[in-house]
Amino acid sequence: MNNFIYDIPTKVYFGEGQIAHLPELIRTCGKRVLLVYGGGSIKKSGLYDTIIGLLKENGIESQELSGVQSNPKIESVRQGIQIVREHQLDCVLAVGGGSTLDCSKAICAGVKYDGDPWELVLDRTKVKACLPLITILTMAATGSEMDNIAVISNPETQDKKGFSSYGMFPKFSILDPTYTYSVPALQTAAGTADIMSHIMESYFDQVRDASVQDGISEALLKTCIESAPVALKKPNDYQARANLMWAASLAINGLNSLGKNRAWTCHPLEHVLSAYYDITHGVGLAILTPRWMKHVLNEQTVDVFARFALHVWNVDPQLDCWAAAEEGIARLYEFFVSMGLPMTLREVGIDESRLEEMAEKAAESDFSRSFQPLTCEDILEIYRASL
Amino acid sequence: MNNFIYDIPTKVYFGEGQIAHLPELIRTCGKRVLLVYGGGSIKKSGLYDTIIGLLKENGIESQELSGVQSNPKIESVRQGIQIVREHQLDCVLAVGGGSTLDCSKAICAGVKYDGDPWELVLDRTKVKACLPLITILTMAATGSEMDNIAVISNPETQDKKGFSSYGMFPKFSILDPTYTYSVPALQTAAGTADIMSHIMESYFDQVRDASVQDGISEALLKTCIESAPVALKKPNDYQARANLMWAASLAINGLNSLGKNRAWTCHPLEHVLSAYYDITHGVGLAILTPRWMKHVLNEQTVDVFARFALHVWNVDPQLDCWAAAEEGIARLYEFFVSMGLPMTLREVGIDESRLEEMAEKAAESDFSRSFQPLTCEDILEIYRASL
């Protein structure tokens, strides 16, 4: 494995009722907070009232930025920065899923930067300081609660880009599985696909001798495969929701990619789709991943896919490596189908018309250190196979 | 799973050559350091000279405490505290295995305490502040490089006790697998048994629904089973040493026991043996663990042992749960034998004579929340079965 530095500074409060810690956590950052959230779901669930009650009881002043959309837009980031500056707020409290958290990270970085925040997205080295961020997660998916990455969309340029900086790690994250009970089935399934994709982006990597990390990846994948169907069937199953939630955090907090190349493939391919068509990120990943796997299955990769099949999907150990590899890819596809995910681009409104344009955009990413390097033609083939 | 807080503050620099970071790490703590080490192995390997060279080049003043023994004694802690106070040192640099690191943690805590440091071992709530600690690990075993626990022996009272406090986490740990190339075969084997015991202490636990954590435990155990034989055969195999080293850290940094009861069994049983007979900790664990497993295998536990057998030892999935459980325990025993470990108490110089006395001492620990509660009689039976 490559050399690495382990440094995951986010402190996580995990479990039912951990929100009781919120006031003491905010107090370590200051007394004035920007509350960021998306639509009305936290109002419907009562979480909003709980939070406002805790803030009031503890004399914490708050301002609000609501309406953060999925695939969060740079415009929301700009709005948040303006509110923080106007009211001289001390920290940001993000309540929601990955979009709300990512938008909040960009706000935390943008507040300390004089120029337009989109410049930070384009060049993360410009991030010099960040406001502290506290998150309360309401959906298991992106892992944004324990990493320092924010993915922001710019509708004007049809860009969707990730950027990261050490200061963008949440200082504290409150993970209460009961807040995910109300996540609808399709979002639960899409979130699971996103978690699994994060794990597989690290697992399918040129570095193949990191046994601890790959074993952790396999354990996390198996947790998703066991827990998601339970959560879909019984949305209020605490243990299933808890295991999915913790798997989501560990899938991308760096643990399973330490000492690996960290050169992702499917995410950059999907980001272009959701930038052009605003589709659900996890759905895009579910559609692309099995097609990408088939595309890169070859003499060099077959052993890795066979291991994936054996350790994650428990395929018959008697199968030869090619049969095992193909069986593993088929099992992944069937699993996504079983969760009710649409599995073709056409089903989510994407047709042939802009595939070439999107492939060219995606090919701007650097795939040279990926599990298998991809050219523009490769990407186009994967997109076409996904129609 | 139970509620938990994830908070692992140690920053780890992992890989060959990471010692280059040492001066910058010390500088974050001050300019005067206590260098703590054991016997002469770091002089023979050249590591001592490398460190002294780096300190001198960077104008860092150092004092030394050498001769820290295995099962580190409270007297070494007292000596270290005195040197730190006399020379007004800013931090401690521990270079060695678990004993050196544990002794150093106790020094860091003891320096800030007015009374005798044994009082801190007996009552960890008395630890109020700690000097910063940097570690350079030379052996994969105890995981002390990434946890906040110190186990200290007091020959006067024949006690060997662990204590912990948040401030006792190392601030930085440098993990270079090449430093473990020179670890002798028996120590490599005993270290592996210690790592595996840490993992199993968390795995065999009353909390059975923490799928992520148990999956990580299984992955870590499999890494030990794969890597230790390679390291024993080829002591300079970088990947085997690296995987063992990283498994050792994750085995006990809390990751695989989050949300579990954390009520260990075999360690308290072994601590008494090594307090009375000063045997190698990992050897004691290897001898006791399979006997403990047989003792607690029953209707309530058989499924857990069967899962252990299936997921860790890949036993035939067709076996019924009892046969699988017994096969898993036998495979663990055989694995310890295959590494060349002595597998009876008599072989390490322990006979019948003090078993009852030691069982009474061990029974002072609280086993009520352990995987299976143990009485003094249970412990005596396990000791006898280990003769």
Produce the secondary structure layout.
The structure is a homodimer of 387-residue chains.
Chain A: E1 4-6, E2 11-14, H1 22-27, E3 32-36, H2 41-44, H3 47-57, E4 61-65, H4 74-87, E5 91-96, H5 98-111, H6 117-122, E6 133-137, E7 149-154, E8 159-164, E9 172-175, H7 185-203, H8 211-233, H9 238-252, H10 266-277, H11 281-296, H12 302-313, H13 321-338, H14 355-362, H15 376-385
Parallel strand pairs in A: 2-9, 3-4, 3-5, 5-6, 6-9
Antiparallel strand pairs in A: 7-8
Query: Ends of chain A: how far apart?
Result: 37 Å
Helix content of chain A: 40-55%
Order of secondary-structure elements of chain A: EEHEHHEHEHHEEEEHHHHHHHHH
The CATH architecture category of the largest domain in chain A equals Up-down Bundle
The gross shape of chain A turns out to be: globular
Q: Using DSSP, what is the number of strands of chain A?
A: 9
Structural class of chain A: alpha/beta
SS summary, helix count of chain A: 15
Mean pLDDT of chain A, to the nearest integer, reads 96
Tell me the CATH superfamily of the largest domain in chain A: Dehydroquinate synthase-like - alpha domain
Oligomer: homodimer
Radius of gyration of chain A, CA atoms, in whole angstroms: 20 Å
What's the CATH C level of the largest domain in chain A? Mainly Alpha
Organism (chains A, B): Holdemania massiliensis
Protein name (chains A, B): Iron-containing alcohol dehydrogenase
Domain Alcohol dehydrogenase iron-type/glycerol dehydrogenase GldA (chains A, B): 9-177
Keywords (chains A, B): Oxidoreductase
